[in-house]
Amino acid sequence: MSEHALDVGLADFDQHVLEESRTRPVVVDFWAPWCGPCKSLKPVLEKLAAEYGGKFLLAKINSDENQELAARYAVRGIPSVKAFINGEMVDEFSGALPEGEVRAFLDRIIPSPADELRAQAADARMAGDTSAALQLLAEASKLDPQHVGVRLDAAEIMLDIGETDEARRLVGSVPDAADPRVAQLQARLQFAGASGEDETALRARVEADGNDLEARLKLGNLLVAAGDYEAGMEQLLEIVRLDRTFQDDVGRKTLLSVFNLLGGGELVSRYRRLLASALN
Predict the structure, then answer these.
(1) What is the mean pLDDT of each run of 10 residues along the chain (280 residues)?
(2) Which of 62, 82, 114, 250 could form a disulfide with 143 if both were Cys (CB 3.0 to 4.6 A apart)?
(3) Helix, strand, or coil (residue 62)
(4) Rounded to 5, what percent of the chain is helix, strand, coil?
């Protein structure tokens, strides 16, 4: 047996699976002594655990002796293989797959060298070292030029430091459906140019003429760019109430961009309801 494979039961499951999965992926093999396919899969998993040299831990659980664990993780047939990362189950398969398919399963859950550099870049960014983060992301991009996460991480940093043209290029290189962050970054880019407006002057225009929709739009964009999302959305909603035809329904479209930017939450839910009401 490899040093990267061990037998696990209820008593040490939390330690060897949930806690260990916070440092590397843990692959759990639910098996039983009477199970023929289990006898075929087990040596494949043990061989790969040794070959991958610690990139994942193989935890083997006798489901007959650990029925509580089998029930907790909805094991309905064996062999049943489940992958854990950061204390959560993230992928699984059932049955004795060929070695090639097992390898493909492992490669989905094991961080690539580019992923490891990306994680280091995230740590550097959290520590405030933007230059180091960008350097690490550049190295990750060389290893995997098509890595969507690396591009979007770099785009976020570029937006943070005001390099909007480069951020726009990076976001534009990623298909919209490739990652939920694309819509959020597109929204950030949309509002990034609003910071040059004069808030006092725009407020004065709106107060003097509530139907000055151009001023309302600029004020709404400016407030959103400054992080005052509720006040900004209120201006945009008022545009919808006053004139749906203004600039091809720009009030509604811009509100949707704010929703994408924020991603969710009570504020977004409330303004979705208010928008729906205004559209009726």
Answers:
(1) 85 95 95 95 95 93 95 93 94 94 93 91 94 96 93 94 92 87 88 80 95 95 90 96 95 93 91 94
(2) 114
(3) strand
(4) 65, 10, 25
Query: Which residue out of 8, 28, 35, 117 is catalytically annotated?
Result: 35
Nearest to 188 by CA among 128, 247, 245, 257: 257
The C-alpha atoms of residue 182 and residue 151 are separated, in whole angstroms, by: 10
Note if 198 is an active site residue. no
| Phi and psi angles of residue 127, each rounded to the nearest 5 degrees, phi first | -80, -5
Q: Which of 27, 38, 78, 222 is catalytic?
A: 38
Contacts of 118 (CB under 8 A, 6+ apart): 136, 137, 140, 147, 149, 150, 153
Superfamily of structural domain 5-109 = Glutaredoxin (3.40.30.10)
Place of tokens 């699984």: 92
Q: How far apart are CA 130 and CA 136, in angstroms?
A: 10
Would you tell me which CATH number, out of the four given (1.10.10.10, 1.25.40.10, 3.40.50.10860, 3.30.70.890), belongs to the domain 113-179? 1.25.40.10
CA dist., res. 192 & res. 222, Å (int): 9
Query: Is-catalytic flag, 35?
Result: yes
Give the residue carrying structure tokens 């990076």: 170
3-state secondary structure of 57: strand
Amino acid 2: pLDDT: 63
Question: What is the pLDDT, as a whole number, of residue 280?
Answer: 86
Question: What CATH number matches the domain at 194-279, 2.170.15, 3.30.43, 1.25.40, 3.40.50?
Answer: 1.25.40
The DSSP secondary-structure symbol of 182 reads H
SS3 112: coil
Q: What is the pTM of this model?
A: 0.64
